[in-house]
Amino acid sequence: MQDAAAAFDRAEQIYRVLANYEGPGGGSVQRGVLFYGSGKLTDARAQFEKVLEMLKTQENNYQLTRAQLELSLVFRDEGNISRAKELAAEAIRVAQNSDIKNVATNGLIDLGLAFLSSGDFDDANNYFSTSTGTGAPR
């Protein structure tokens, strides 16, 4: 974990020197994924929220939807199902409007999982069906 954190720090330094504004956001998303995968939800949430803050000054719908979807998983795991649903729904809307189909599909699955976690099986099934192309959201 320490080696990965050091590598992310170094990559962010290089991106800044190169004036590459997309790189630090991508690095923060990946750092958040690393924290999430190791069960460090607070650290993961901080990274994803950092990305969302960075994206207020630039347009990058791919990173925006990735960060929102990952953050929705953190909220789901923390038990905040309503916030998880909101974020996933917003990410899906942006991905669909931006024609980022693979991200939209992942978002539909994540939204289905959020509904499933809250015991709403009908809505979960609706989003799972939509993600596989066998249904349309109601």
Please state the overall shape, judged from the principal axes of the Cα atoms. Answer: globular
Let me know the average pLDDT: 82
How many separate helices? 7
Tally of strands: 0
Uncertain segments are: none
Question: Mind summarizing the main beta sheet?
Answer: none
Proportion of residues in helical segments: over 70%
Order of helices and strands: HHHHHHH
Give the oligomer, counting copies of the same chain as homo and different chains as hetero: single chain
Radius of gyration: 16 Å
Terminal-residue CA separation: 42 Å
Based on helices, strands and strand pairing, what is the structural class? mainly alpha
Strand content: under 5%
Provide a brief overview of the structure.
With 138 residues, the protein is mostly helical.
Protein described:
The protein has 138 residues and is an all-alpha fold. 78% of the residues lie in helices and 0% in strands. It has seven helices and no strands. Helix 1 packs antiparallel against helix 2 (22-37) and helix 4 (61-77) runs antiparallel to helix 5. The longest helix is centred in the middle third of the chain and has 17 residues, at 61-77. The protein is globular.
Quick tags:
single chain, 7 helices, mainly alpha
Task: Give the SSE layout.
Blueprint: H1 2-17, H2 22-37, H3 41-54, H4 61-77, H5 81-97, H6 101-117, H7 121-131
Helix pairs in contact: 1-2, 2-3, 2-4, 3-4, 4-5, 4-6, 5-6, 6-7
